[in-house]
Structures are given as structure tokens and as C-alpha cells.
Specification:
Chain lengths: ~325, ~300
């Protein structure tokens, strides 16, 4: 779908992309990087809007430098920023955008009705977009990227500004774009956690260079762990300790989570991190908790902290760059 | 061209009836030229508030009416008093009603370009098959057409009235044609200037004010200095001063080439020699506007 070869983009003051070579196949691909890592720059180059300083890139087998218009006819783009005029309705706007993509008037209307329905906009599509919620606006933005039935859509931070529920809806929708609509997706985010649920493949870039490109299952295999928190009961005053012992006895690797960071609210030593050995691990944990008669407060797939990805990486200097945004990591884990 | 949207459910499950599935599109994709035409027609309609809210139709329609009513009155007078010529020249009409044209431009040029900048719709356009040039050409052409419709409609009224009043056909047709050429040049010039000024700011209000300021201040300044020149008997300079404001530029060109009577003080319009300079300045202004707009969108698109 997308192939770049030592692609570089330099601005007078910064290097946005530095000899980036990636090969992205069909399916849902996540492009992860901190703000300013070069994600948006890469998308603009892929759309043929901004020339690369050096190197080359191909989208759908077409060279971005020479066949930009053909690429843009078959590719959808959802920008990161707000892009909707408030005084027109979603229907009018998407119809206009469909025509701008080359669809004849009748087809533009039909496709607009279909696409808006697929992204989950119904009666409100006839109202001016100024009154829409952020979630609805994101859906319209997605609809205008899909309306001309592209082969590939580039989604720039589609979950920006959404609450956890809206975020999950949007991620589910993105998944469906591939599974139901058969359209390949390149989705950017600065949160690795939310992409691993949605994507088949994740590409991590930082400072314009490729840090890692691998399938999502590789990421999960590295450090699949389960966070478990239980209540204490009269019979078992130290519920956490008892559970740890029970799980260890069942042959699982258990360690208490630190008192700081993502599980600080639970208090030190109240959350156990259990290494996932396979599907049966969940059952073992459930049975152990039930056997002890404890209340299960939390049992969740632990979201990877992006830093962990780089701990295994052989570029230790990069971890520092990620460490600069601890707030963002925290919110991923919470979501 | 019929759209060939074929029903091809991805999951052909016979027991699912509520989901008709995603239908892929296999029909025509008409490409860049069609997209440019679509943007042109959308912008042109938008200039008259068509396809927009009822509120945004009021001003352009009102101005259009204000533009045409005097022509209707002139025609009525000419027909009923059985005049042997129209009481005003075709070429003079736009000069008389320049304030209306200026208001229309000030209201609609920002509507056309500032909105796209303000709501950041421009990058969406550039993610479509069109190029920057197409965007500029479509917007420029749409604004020019909108102004031409506004300025040519009263001329058509005058011409129709003149024929009804059985005035000399050859005479009237010649005057009408000259009038049309004049308002076409005016539309090009005003559209270019208006769009350049409006494209500088994403704020619509600033755009409106700036367009009005550019038109009135330049006209006011030129008129004042011409007046002073007339009083101090510097009649030579009067005909050159007209180069510095859009409406007097048009006045100069049509005085020199379209047998119009000048509205310069004392009737000191440019002759053919100076007229060539006027025409060159006008064409340079139109080309310059186009160049500035293209340069503007080189950055604004990203």
C-alpha cells in the first residue's frame, strides 16, 4: 500500500523526517509517535502535497512526486484539525467533498447518504455542523474521507478530543473500515495503547526516524500482563497477598505493581501484575479470586507504556524523548 | 453518467436483514477538471447564497435588486416619455453604482475564501485531485462570474428596454456590447483585488472591512487629488491619477477604448496613448492578483 525509501523532509530549522524507510501492507496500520515526531509531515508527503527533500515514496504503487492527483483520487484523508464549516449541514458538506473527489452528482448524493449512515450519523446530518458534538464532527470528518470509496484512508489523530466512550466507538469504526468496507487504513496516534487494539501492524517513529515496525501481536507478546486488584475480606485480611500466593501456587508469575505511576490510586502493593501465559490465565485468576471469596475490583489487560517498547529497543537515547510526555502515557493507561 | 453503485454486501449472510452492508463504488471518477468545475459552481452559487442558509441569501439578493432597479426605472422613463436615446450610457451604469458593486464584493469575497481558511477546509480541498492552481482558478472565476452577473444584468435590462422603446438598433447594440466588455473587465479586476485582500485574513469581518477600505480609500484619495488638480489647473495630471484606484482605472480604459464619457473631474479622461497604459495596468493588476493568490495558497494549503 505504502512504501517509502530513505524519505527525508527538512525544514529550515527542523528535520521532520530523516531517511525513513517503511513498507506498509494492506490492513489497519498504526503510525505512532509523539507530537512533532513527523506523522503529519509523512501524511502530507504521501498525499503528494508537500515534496520530500530526498528519497522517494509510493502509495498504491504510484510515485507521490509525479502522480499526486491520481493518488488523491483513490485515497481518503481525515485531518487532525477541525475542518468543517459550521453553517452547512453534514450532508451538503460531504456531497460537495464527494464531488471534489470526482464523483458525479447523483453518485455523490447516494454515497453520502450511505457513508453518513455507516459512520453513525442519522437525523442530525441535515442540521448545520456548528451544533455538533466533537464525536459527531469526527464522524463527519471520517465520512468525507470515505465517501469516494478510496482504497486507502489516512486518518490523522482520529481520536483526538474524544472521551473514552467516543474513543472506543471511533476505534471500532476504524476497525470496521477495514473488516467491513475493505479499505486499508493508516491511522496516526501518539497513544500506542489505543492502537494496539485496532491495528494489525504498528509503525513507531520518533524524531523523523523509524523506531520499530512490527505486527501488533509482536508488541503484545513482549509484555502481556494482567493488572488485578482485589478487596480484602474478613476471612482474608490481606486479600492481595493471599491472591499472590494462590496465583504463584497455580504456576503464574506474579509481582506487585509499584506504588507510583498508573496504579498509584490503588495504594502501594494493592495491584498485582500477572504475566499472561495464555487464554487459561484469565480463568485461573478468576477461579483463584472466587476461591478466596474476594471482590474483584479490577482485572484488565495492561496497556503498554510506550517506554516499555523502547526499553527493549537498542536505541536508549530515544526513551528520553518519550519520557518528556508522561501525561499522555498516563491517560492511555487510564483509557 | 449513471452511477454504478453495486450492492455488494461484504458479509453475504442471509439471516441478517438490518444491515445492507457497505457498498463499494465502481462508477465513474471524473477527475481534476470536474472537481474544479464543482468548486466553481459551488463558489458561484455561494456568492448569491444559494445552497446556504436563508440568512445568507438576503444581502446578495438585495444588492442584486438594488443594482437592477435603477435600470428598470431608466427603461420605464425612456419607454413612456418616448426618448430617442437612453438617458445614460451603458458604460456609465457600473460607475454610478460602484458602491453597490463594492458592497457585494466586500460581502462575498471573504465569504468565498476567508471561510475556507478560517475553518481550515482548504487542506481538505488539496487532499482531493485538484491542485492549488485549480482552487485559485475556480475561486477567481466564480467571483468574476458573480460580479459579471451583478453588473451585466442591469445592462441587459437597459438593452431590452431600449429595443422595446424602438431606439436605434445598431447604436444600442454597439453601446450594449461596449458596456459588457467594460463590466467584464471590471469584474475581473474587482474579483482579483477582493479575493487577494480577503485571502489575507481568515477573519471574515476583517476581510469585509479591508475590501471596503481598499475600494473607498483609493477612490476617495484619487477623487480628492483630481479635484485639487482641477482647481489648480493641473489638468494634465488628472488623467494619470485615475490609474490609482480600481474604479477610475476602469473609467480610464472605457473612456479611451469603449467610447465612454469619463467621470473624471472636468472631463479630463485619458486619450488613447494614456489609455494603453491604463489597459496595461489593469491587465497587470488582474495577473498580479492571480499570482498573489497562488502564492498565498502555496502556504495556506498545509
Amino acid at each position: 500500500m505504502i512504501a517509502t525509501e530513505s524519505l527525508s523532509k527538512r525544514f529550515p530549522r527542523v528535520t521532520a523526517l530523516d531517511r525513513l524507510s517503511v513498507d506498509i501492507g494492506p490492513g489497519v496500520t498504526g503510525l505512532v509517535g509523539a507530537n512533532g515526531a513527523g506523522k503529519s509531515t509523512l501524511i502530507k508527503i504521501l498525499l503528494g502535497l508537500s515534496p520530500a527533500t530526498e528519497g522517494r515514496a509510493e502509495v498504491l504503487g504510484l510515485d507521490v512526486a509525479t502522480r499526486g492527483a491520481e493518488i488523491r483520487e483513490q485515497v481518503g484523508y481525515m485531518p487532525e484539525h477541525d475542518c468543517l464549516p459550521p453553517d452547512v449541514s453534514a450532508t451538503e458538506f460531504v456531497v460537495h467533498m464527494a464531488r471534489m473527489s470526482g464523483l458525479p452528482p447523483t453518485a455523490a448524493r447516494e454515497r453520502t447518504a450511505d457513508t453518513l449512515r455507516h459512520v453513525g450519523l442519522y437525523e442530525e446530518r441535515y442540521r448545520p455542523m456548528g451544533g455538533y458534538s466533537t464525536g459527531m464532527k469526527q464522524r463527519v470528518k471520517l465520512a468525507q474521507a470515505l465517501v469516494h470509496d478510496p482504497k486507502l484512508v489516512l486518518l490523522d489523530e482520529p481520536t483526538n478530543g474524544l472521551d473514552p466512550v467516543g474513543r472506543d466507538d471511533m476505534l471500532g469504526l476504524i476497525r470496521r473500515v477495514h473488516t467491513d468496507f475493505g479499505i486499508s487504513v493508516l491511522v496516526t496516534s501518539h497513544l500506542l495503547g489505543e492502537l494496539e487494539r485496532t491495528c494489525d501492524h504498528v509503525v513507531v517513529i520518533d524524531g523523523g526516524t523509524l523506531l520499530r515496525s512490527s505486527s501488533t501481536s509482536d508488541f503484545t507478546r513482549d509484555s502481556g500482563s494482567l493488572a488485578v486488584e482485589v478487596t480484602d475480606s474478613d476471612a482474608v485480611p490481606d486479600g492481595t497477598g493471599a491472591l499472590a500466593a494462590a496465583l504463584a501456587a497455580a504456576g503464574l508469575t506474579v509481582q506487585p505493581a509499584g506504588g507510583t505511576g498508573e496504579y498509584a490510586a490503588a495504594g502501594p502493593g494493592h495491584v498485582l501484575l500477572v504475566d499472561v501465559a495464555g487464554e487459561e490465565t484469565y480463568d485461573t485468576v478468576r477461579d483463584a479470586v472466587a476461591g478466596l471469596g474476594l471482590g474483584l475490583v479490577r482485572m484488565e489487560q495492561r496497556r503498554h507504556r510506550i517506554a516499555e517498547v523502547f526499553r527493549t529497543d537498542e536505541q536508549p537515547q530515544q526513551t528520553h524523548a518519550w519520557g518528556a510526555a508522561p501525561q499522555e502515557r498516563g491517560s492511555t493507561d487510564a483509557a | 453518467m449513471p452511477p454504478e453503485t453495486t450492492a455488494a454486501p461484504v458479509h453475504p449472510a442471509p439471516d441478517v436483514i438490518h444491515n445492507i452492508g457497505y457498498r463499494s463504488y465502481g462508477g465513474a471518477r471524473l477527475g481534476r477538471a470536474y472537481a474544479r468545475r464543482s468548486l466553481y459552481s459551488q463558489s458561484l452559487r455561494g456568492a448569491y447564497g444559494l445552497g446556504r442558509s436563508a440568512k445568507s441569501k438576503i444581502l446578495p439578493m438585495l444588492l442584486f435588486a438594488v443594482m437592477c432597479v435603477p435600470a428598470a426605472i431608466v427603461v420605464a422613463v425612456a419607454v413612456f416619455t418616448k426618448m430617442n436615446h437612453l438617458p445614460l450610457e451603458y458604460t456609465r451604469y457600473a460607475i454610478y453604482l460602484q458602491a453597490v458593486i463594492g458592497l457585494f464584493l466586500a460581502a462575498q469575497a471573504p465569504q468565498s475564501v476567508s471561510r475556507d481558511l478560517r475553518f481550515k477546509t482548504v487542506p481538505l480541498y488539496f487532499s482531493r485531485p485538484i491542485e492549488r492552481v485549480d482552487y485559485v482558478v475556480a475561486k477567481f472565476a466564480a467571483m468574476t462570474t458573480a460580479l459579471f452577473v451583478l453588473t451585466a444584468a442591469p445592462l441587459v435590462t437597459l438593452y431590452a428596454g431600449a429595443l422595446l422603446a424602438k431606439l436605434d438598433f445598431v447604436d444600442q447594440t454597439k453601446g450594449f456590447a461596449q458596456g459588457l466588455v467594460s463590466v467584464a473587465l471590471l469584474s475581473l479586476l474587482f474579483a482579483g483585488l477582493g479575493l487577494v485582500v480577503a485571502a489575507l485574513t481568515p477573519r471574515r469581518g476583517f476581510g469585509v472591512a479591508a475590501v471596503i477600505a481598499v475600494l473607498t480609500i483609493s477612490y476617495g484619495a484619487v477623487g480628492t487629488i483630481q479635484g485639487i488638480a482641477l482647481n489648480t489647473d493641473n489638468t494634465q495630471i488628472i488623467s494619470w491619477l485615475g490609474l490609482f484606484s480600481p474604479i477610475t482605472l476602469i473609467d480610464g480604459v472605457q473612456t479611451a477604448f469603449l467610447s465612454a464619457t469619463t467621470s473624471f473631474p472636468g472631463g479630463h479622461g485619458p486619450g488613447t496613448g494614456a489609455g494603453v497604459v491604463y489597459l496595461l495596468v489593469l491587465l497587470a493588476a488582474v495577473a498580479g492578483s492571480y499570482g498573489l493568490l497562488t502564492a498565498r495558497y502555496r502556504k495556506a494549503g498545509l
